[in-house]
Amino acid sequence: MKVTVRWQGRKEDKEIEEGATILDLLKRYGILRETVVVFVNGRIVPEENSLEEGDEVVIHPIASGG
After folding, report:
1. 9-29 per-position pLDDT tens digit
2. Using an 8 Å Cβ cutoff, are 56 and 3 in contact?
3. Residues 6+ apart with CB under 8 A from 9
4. Distances in Å between the alpha carbon of 23 and those of 20, 32, 65, 66?
5. How many CB atoms within 10 Å of residue 4?
6. Segment 29-49, tens digit of pLDDT
7. What is the domain count for the chain?
8. Which residues are within 8 A (CB) of 28 and not within 5 positions of it... i.e. 6 or more apart?
9. CATH number of the CATH domain containing 34
10. Which residues face 4 on adjacent strands?
11. Measured between alpha carbons, how far is 25 from 12 in angstroms, rounded to an integer?
12. Which domain holds residue 49?
């Protein structure tokens, strides 16, 4: 199935396995889940949620500093 991923200023259509979770997608990109906030179709969702055909996933890095 295909989802759209926005990450680091890029927009990509990605082919992923049926039933893949957000965590699976983050692993595919080599992203630690503690370092980002993930939106699916405009809503913040847990990384354990399964993705569906046509979902738009936006990955935002968490800003930190002092």
Report:
1. 999 999 999 999 999 999 999
2. yes
3. none
4. 8, 9, 25, 29
5. 13
6. 999 999 999 999 999 999 999
7. 1
8. 14, 16
9. 3.10.20.30
10. 13, 56
11. 12
12. 2-61
CB contact burial 33-63 (16+ within 10 A = b; e otherwise):
eeebebebeeeebeeeeebeeebebbbeeee
**Which residues, in sequence order, are bridge partners of residue 2?**
15
Asked whether the beta carbons of 16 and 3 are under 8 A apart, the reply is yes
pTM of the model: 0.89
As given in the structure block, the two tokens for residue 58 are 């936006």
pLDDT reading at 64 higher than 80: no
Give the model's pLDDT for residue 10: 94
